[in-house]
Design goal:
By secondary structure, this protein is an alpha+beta fold. The protein contains twelve helices and nine strands. The chain starts with a helix and ends in a 7-residue tail after the last strand. The relative contact order is 0.06.
Length: about 475
């Protein structure tokens, strides 16, 4: 096997390995990861050797046709081994093809440079008498060529891996569904890179006066500019991925901010209305108790004693009036209303609701930010707790709400039972529900974190499991200056 043929085989092997891992980063395999990678690598290597080494000798084709054929093979293999995701599959295929074709020419230039160095070393060895026989010259040539083949293959692998790794690392929003226009934005730099590699191929070798001429010999500066152009092409592809991801994150953050603002405005509107009702209820409660006391006194004075049926009836009326009282007195009507509402919701779902919460009057924290935190945290807790399935039916599902102040720091702790799988999103570090409404669940935690960071704080999540019981604990810390500090 010639050295060039051996280098081609090494490149096919490298492509088969790196392409499998690269596709796995973006696409979901139809089978287990190990099976997909093994089958993909073997199939890719076999197809490349057959198509571009065996069949190309019988049916030669130009560079463009070979590139299109290679792209189609890659795309078909993605359809076979991975689940259908047309937009992502096209991006993966174009970006990989652009990378491997561009890196080939970078390595080719280094190869030409080292060939000149190799000729100088060989001439020095001949002049010095170190190589003085044909046998020694053949051995030197054979060994040096094998070393250079291994060196070029290693350089190709490192450059291609670095390029693919950067794209994979910068493409942080893997779950984002690409739209056609967005996919075109990502693919166009790859297509441009492929077109320029075809142009470079046409420029490198030309025929003048019936003799083949290499551009590196006629224009030595191309040994510098071709690698630079190739590096810029790869950088452009990576930069387009980075820019696209930044735009996606910006739009996502903008949407979250808008939703949070709408949530606060809606909550303010509802709380103002409920506060009016709350004030009326307190007056009504006071008046009704006074009326019942007067009725009881009048009946007793008129009849000389209270009838048992009448006493029972009045007692039931008092119980009804007592229900108008808010169970939890936190020191602020807004937090009273939210906790009371969530407590009633938990009671309907047979969840034990324990509250030890006090509003931090001395700290300069907006009550509506605390309201957003309580509303989202308790809503998530009730939702998770209501779907909990315990093997021990005697164990009561419960939610605990606790708050405390340390200096200028205000802490809110919400702990609840849960039984579902918790998936941690790599980018945000926040858990996302495995259910269909996972993004909404994650958005609630994101809103909580946003409110906490507004006061130079953050959230902490701890998941414990003991006695077959899984507990989700959320701690929110906010730093609010005291009235004295301000």
């Amino acid at each position: 096997m010639s050295e060039m043929r051996l280098l081609s085989v090494f490149i096919y092997l490298i492509d088969s390995i790196l392409s499998g891992f690269y596709a796995m980063d973006f696409l979901k395999g139809k089978y287990s990861k190990r099976m997909v990678l093994a089958a993909w690598g073997a199939a890719w290597f076999f197809i490349q050797v057959v198509v571009f080494e065996i069949l190309s000798g019988r049916f030669p084709s130009d560079r463009v046709v070979a590139m299109i054929l290679d792209f189609c093979i890659l795309l078909i293999m993605q359809f076979v081994f991975f689940q259908k995701d047309i937009q992502k599959q096209f991006f993966v295929a174009f970006s990989f093809m652009a990378g491997k074709e561009t890196v080939k020419y970078m390595v080719h230039v280094f190869e030409m440079v080292f060939d000149g160095l190799y000729d100088e070393i060989f001439g020095y060895l001949l002049a010095g008498g170190i190589i003085n026989t044909i046998e020694k010259a053949l051995v030197w040539t054979k060994i040096s060529n094998l070393i250079f083949v291994a060196l070029w293959a290693l350089l190709y692998a490192l450059l291609l891996y670095g390029y693919l790794h950067l794209i994979s690392k910068k493409f942080v929003k893997r779950d984002y569904p690409l739209q056609k226009q967005e996919n075109v934005f990502l693919i166009l730099p790859c297509v441009a890179a492929l077109c320029i590699t075809v142009l470079i191929k046409m420029m490198i070798l030309s025929v003048e006066n019936g003799m083949a001429v290499i551009i590196y010999d006629t224009v030595p500066a191309t040994k510098f500019w071709i690698p630079v152009i190739c590096a810029l092409l790869l950088s452009t592809i990576i930069a387009s991925v980075v820019l696209f991801q930044k735009l996606v994150q910006y739009n996502e953050e903008t949407g979250k901010c808008a939703m949070l603002e709408n949530q606060v405005r809606q909550m303010q509107k509802e709380i103002v209305e409920i506060q009016d009702i709350y004030t009326d209820m307190r007056g009504l409660r006071h008046d009704m108790r006074s009326h019942m006391a007067n009725v009881t006194l009048l009946v007793k004075n008129a009849a000389g004693s209270v009838n048992e049926e009448l006493e029972s009836y009045i007692g039931k009326m008092e119980e009804t009036v007592s229900r108008l009282d808010f169970t939890y007195q936190t020191g602020n009507p807004i937090t009273d209303i939210i906790i009371h509402q969530k407590g009633q919701e938990a009671e309907k779902k047979q969840i034990r609701f324990q509250v030890d919460f006090a509003y931090p009057h001395k700290l300069m924290i907006d009550v509506y930010d605390i309201a957003v935190i309580l509303n989202n945290a308790l809503e998530n807790a009730i939702e998770a707790c209501s779907r909990t399935t315990n093997c021990n039916t005697e164990v009561e599902k419960q939610i605990k709400l606790h708050s405390y102040v340390k200096g200028s720091l205000f802490f809110i702790e919400v702990e609840n039972d849960f039984s579902e799988e918790v998936i941690i999103e790599q980018r945000s570090g926040l858990p996302v529900s495995s259910k269909g409404n996972g993004k909404l669940h994650g958005l609630g935690l994101s809103n909580i974190q946003r409110c906490a960071r507004k006061y130079m704080g953050d959230i902490d999540i701890v998941i414990n499991e003991a006695d077959g019981r899984k507990r989700f604990s959320l701690t929110v810390m906010m730093n609010g200056k005291t009235a004295a500090e301000s």
